Amino acid sequence: MVNRRISPDIKECALRLWELEWDRSAICSTLLVSQSSLYRWAKIFDEFGAVTPPPPPIMGRPQTIELAALSAIKDIYTRHADTCLFELRWWLAIHHDIQISISALQQSLDRTGLTRKLLHKIAVEREVERRRDFLYTIQHKFSGTGREFVTIDESSKNEHDVAPRYGRAPIGMPADFEDVFVRGVCYTLVAAMGIDGYIAQRVIEGSLDSFGFFDFIVEEVPEMGVFPDDCSVLVMDNCRIHHMETLQETLNAQGIMLMYLPPYSPDLNPIEESFSTWKAHLRANVRSIRAADDPILILLESTGCITPAKARAWFHHAG
């Protein structure tokens, strides 16, 4: 019975039987415990009211970074998310007389919830007023369901885009992966997305020009409605190939409204997030994608990863 772990319910049972005036020898032989253990449990129960003592209080070194400094650090990262650890280390030494290593500083930030993340870059060229006006328009001048809107954009893909980015390997060992270093043939996906997912998509070899973009719009116009019906407002960014007088005239003739996003505002276009999901799907299925006999057909089929539930979430996230 050396180093044998005895569950609390057996300890409680033993003390209960002892309280009912069972013979100690009978209790120990029945539950396979020693009399010394029985006495020890009784002493613990008398002192703490339970058969197991409470855990000891956590002891350790006092925190190097006090609450006031932590609050200031959070404020720094709120205003300057790209602050490096060595910069923060110097700031703590100068302003708070705190000497701390980079590794300890990293652990302190992790404990407070300031984790390391991929930076989300925001263009300094953004026009705040135009973004505010755009959001106000789509939120207050339409039905509020988002069913009027169809967003359109294009995304390219080459061999680098479908290569896996993460793998697994033992600790201290690199995760090696053999892959092509040439970009290979470029394919472009141009798609139109409503609140229920893609309503039209096309894949071409090479890049998309203004004529190819116009042809795609014209051929898919019958899929759209007349304003203010569902799918009657076409939203796109300010890419050069999207600005054509002929395009505006064609859409107006069909009763379709055309809206351009504010400059440098891809976050307001729901279809941008769909392209990220599409490329993640390509990376997850890279072997079948590369082995396909018809690359255009397999790329078109891969857009099936864009589901109505995801599309609605992207529209909600875009405002």
UniProtKB/TrEMBL annotation:
<dbReference type="GO" id="GO:0003676">
    <property type="term" value="F:nucleic acid binding"/>
</dbReference>
<protein>
    <submittedName>
        <fullName>Tc1-mariner class transposase</fullName>
    </submittedName>
</protein>
<dbReference type="InterPro" id="IPR009057">
    <property type="entry name" value="Homeodomain-like_sf"/>
</dbReference>
<feature type="domain" description="Tc1-like transposase DDE">
    <location>
        <begin position="149"/>
        <end position="287"/>
    </location>
</feature>
<dbReference type="InterPro" id="IPR038717">
    <property type="entry name" value="Tc1-like_DDE_dom"/>
</dbReference>
<dbReference type="InterPro" id="IPR047655">
    <property type="entry name" value="Transpos_IS630-like"/>
</dbReference>
<dbReference type="Pfam" id="PF13358">
    <property type="entry name" value="DDE_3"/>
</dbReference>
<dbReference type="InterPro" id="IPR036397">
    <property type="entry name" value="RNaseH_sf"/>
</dbReference>
